Amino acid sequence: MAQASAHGQGQQHPIRLYLVVWVWLFVLSACSYFVDYFQVQGLLRYSLILLFMMLKAGLIMAIFMHMAWERLSLVYAILVPISAVLVFVAIMVLESDYTLLSRVSFFVSGT
Amino acid sequence: MAEQAVTDTTHTYPEASDLRSIAADFSSDRQAFRNVSWGKAMMWIFLLSDTFVFSCFLISYMTARMSTTVPWPNASEVFALTIGGVTLPLILIAIMTFVLISSSGTMAMAVNFAYRRDRRKTAILMLATALLGATFVGMQAFEWSKLIHEGVRPWSNPWGAAQFGSSFFMITGFHGTHVSFGVLFLLIVARKVWRGDYEHQRRGFFTSRRGDYEAVEIMGLYWHFVDLVWVFIFAFFYLW
């Protein structure tokens, strides 16, 4: 993972690597567009959207942003705090379920 | 025990890529991110804080959408365009996605050529990146004016839940602002590369510091982050 030598004279990777990643990002974007174009619905739609999203984000971060070659302590310092976002998402999912329940039981039926 | 302690302190941790190296870095009582320049580390920390900003926007959008009793407008239809008599769903957003990904590709190659000290190619690729970024912002301006023309406002819209407008303008507006500032900084750094500032040790106009080609990589980190955020906006706002 951590190639210390890569930092001395900066990141040196063949241009081919970037072109391959570029093509992959195009393919993955096209795939996620076709999920909508062919109106894939239900659980398959959400899992495909998330899958293509995570693959694209992973490629951009690992190759384009050079995280695959960064020192591990920097990688962890950036990636670990992001897990707090997932906790926040979980809290707000519970909260919005509760809000929806209140709205349905107190407002919608009353009208 | 004492001997053990002595050998431990003299033991210089090798470039091990495991949790032990992280513990060693953070407990080393000196610069934690070894071999990482302050500029790069600070850009990463800024990007982390920006991640939280965009996360808050997307989470508030999620909360609004999950808790409303009114149906959410169908993004596939709202963002459809009719080109030559054929109505294509989300086509403008798809083109914007491809434009932004292409700009990320040119930026990645610009970083590569910068470390090879190829000033000409670096500057041209950075200008191409800026051009693609400006194209993206232009298409976003077109999308905004189309939606405003159709009656979308932050407080109402013709198709359903009122929060659609506020979420849309907030999230895409903040992202578009990031792209616009990115274009501005790309042009500034491209000019410096073209002029050879990083080779002649010319001092910067703002900080009066001497830069080096790592500035291109740091600029690249910001630009790829803007692309990264768009990946999430595309998935959660437009496709979901």
3D structure, described in words:
The complex is a heterodimer of chains A (111) and B (240). Chain A is mainly alpha-helical and 111 residues long. Chain A has 2 domains: 1-70; 72-111. Helices cover 78% and strands 0% of the residues of chain A. Chain A contains 4 helices and no strands. Chain B folds into 2 domains: 1-35, no CATH class; 37-239, Cytochrome c oxidase, subunit III, four-helix bundle (Four Helix Bundle (Hemerythrin (Met), subunit A), Up-down Bundle). Chain B has helices at residues 2-10, 19-26, 38-67, 75-78, 91-115, 119-149, 163-195, 197-200, 214-239, and strands at residues 81-83, 86-88. The model of chain B is unreliable at 1-11 (pLDDT under 50).
Write out key terms for the chains shown.
heterodimer, A: 111 residues, mainly alpha, 78% helix, 0% strand, flat, B: 240 residues, Four Helix Bundle (Hemerythrin (Met), subunit A), 2 domains, globular, disordered N terminus
CATH topology of the largest domain in chain B: Four Helix Bundle (Hemerythrin (Met), subunit A)
Number of strands of chain B: 2
Q: So how many helices of chain B?
A: 9
Q: For the residues shown, what is the average pLDDT of chain A?
A: 87
Which CATH C-level class of the largest domain in chain B is it? Mainly Alpha
Oligomeric state of shown chains: heterodimer
Strand fraction of chain A: under 5%
